[in-house]
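Fold this sequence, please.
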Amino acid sequence: MGDKPRQAGVLVISHGSPDPRWVELVDEAVAAAAAGLPDGLPIEASFLETVEGRLIQNGIDRLEAQGVTDLIVLPLFVSSGSTHIDEIAYALGVKNTPEKETDMESLRCSARVFFGDPIDDDPVIAELVWEKVKPLSTDPAREVLLLVGHGSIHDGFRQRWEQGISSLALHTGEVSGLAHADYALLNPDSVRRKVGYWSEERGFTVLVAPLFLSAGYFTKTAIPSRLAGLTFRYSGDALLPHPLLSRWMLGQILNIMGSLER
């Protein structure tokens, strides 16, 4: 590289959706995070699939066209148990082989990649989850928080899902002051069993909180359909929109930037 000046840039990667509102919410959150970054630091929001012209390669190309040599990649996913994290890291050359077979091809990227972490568990996110659930709470001493995530049927990935969501449930429970906090996954499915246990066997009111980035099929259909006939409270509120998610993103980006300067 010689004496060529180094230039940092940020690539936020999320899943993508055919729903324009889903994409808009991500864009708004990224813009709010960008407002806290140093002036002139290039940032792009890109998507794993579906959003034409804004896929990961498009984002890399746009940033490298602006002279970016140090690419800070923020995977905007709720769990390191997502198989997508594995395949994106592999496609970016961060890891030599994927843990799970993927048809995702290697991405063209000449910048040095600094790969960040997904959400998993964080005090800011615990506060966010509780703010979303709080309106459902009327008698905290008789209520249980049940955090529901997508999960994974794949060995290794499932354990990462469980580790992150159980820790986040614990921290959200501490913030909330509710009697208990627990978690359930859609894969392998434990949602109905957990709600039944807390409501029918233990006699608590269950406040169900979906751990999904943005509202969609899972929050609107998958979770409610699995709980038909049971007693629970549910707003269906996903993490977005909420300013605390942008604060989490900003913290992650600044943390990686700090390590670049050392």
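The beta strands are 8-14, 43-47, 70-75, 112-115, 143-151, 180-187, 205-210, 233-234. The first strand starts at residue 8 and ends at 14.
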